[in-house]
Every structure is written in structure tokens, then in C-alpha cells.
């Protein structure tokens, strides 16, 4: 029985070493593949297109947020309140005339 434990350990160590060697050999190939994929993707034309698309998606959101802040929390809120008060004051005046 004590003889099988070292054999098992030796087998596992050999498997570990074989896996490490395979990964090291594949690592260089994987590095080359990743480097090539990045270089192929990151062309000036592609990066320009990506930036332009992101700008076209982001700017409208920024404008909407700024307008919303203006009317929800800024001076626009007071303008809306004043317009509503004017509207209802006119309504009250029209109803009083009839």
C-alpha cells in the first residue's frame, strides 16, 4: 500500500508538468493570435468609425440630460411654473367673464 502513493504522486506530477509545457507552448501561439486580432481590429479607419458611432450615441443623451436638468432643477422650472400660472390665470379670467 505505501508503494502506490509515490506512484500516484509521480503520475500527477508528470501530468502537471505535461499540462504546463502544453500551456507554455500554446501561450506563445495564443499571444500571436491575440496580437494579430488586435492589430487587425484597431486600424485607424475602424477606430475612427467606432469613435464616431459612440459620439453619435452619446451626444444626444448628454443634450437630453442637460435639458432635463434645466427644466427639472434650473431656471426652466420657474419658466414652466410661470407659464402654467399665466395659463390658469387667463382661464380663471375667461370663466369669470361668462
Summarize the structure.
The chain has 98 residues and is mainly alpha-helical. It has 3 helices and no strands.
Question: Can you put this structure into words, describing what you see?
Answer:
The chain has 98 residues and is mainly alpha-helical. Helix content is 93%, strand content 0%. It contains three helices and no strands. The chain is elongated. The chain starts with a helix and ends with a helix.
What attributes characterize this protein structure?
0% strand; 3 helices; single chain; mainly alpha
Blueprint (SSEs and pairs):
Layout: H1 4-41, H2 44-73, H3 75-97
Estimated share of beta-strand residues:
under 5%
Biggest pleated-sheet summary: none
Helix content: over 70%
The number of distinct helices, counting runs of at least 4 residues, comes to: 3
Rg:
35 Å
Quaternary class: single chain
Estimate the global geometry from the Cα principal axes. Answer: elongated
Low-confidence stretches: none
The tally of strands reads 0
Distance between the termini: 110 Å
Count of the domains: 2
Mean pLDDT: 87
Structural class: mainly alpha
Order of helices and strands, N to C? HHH
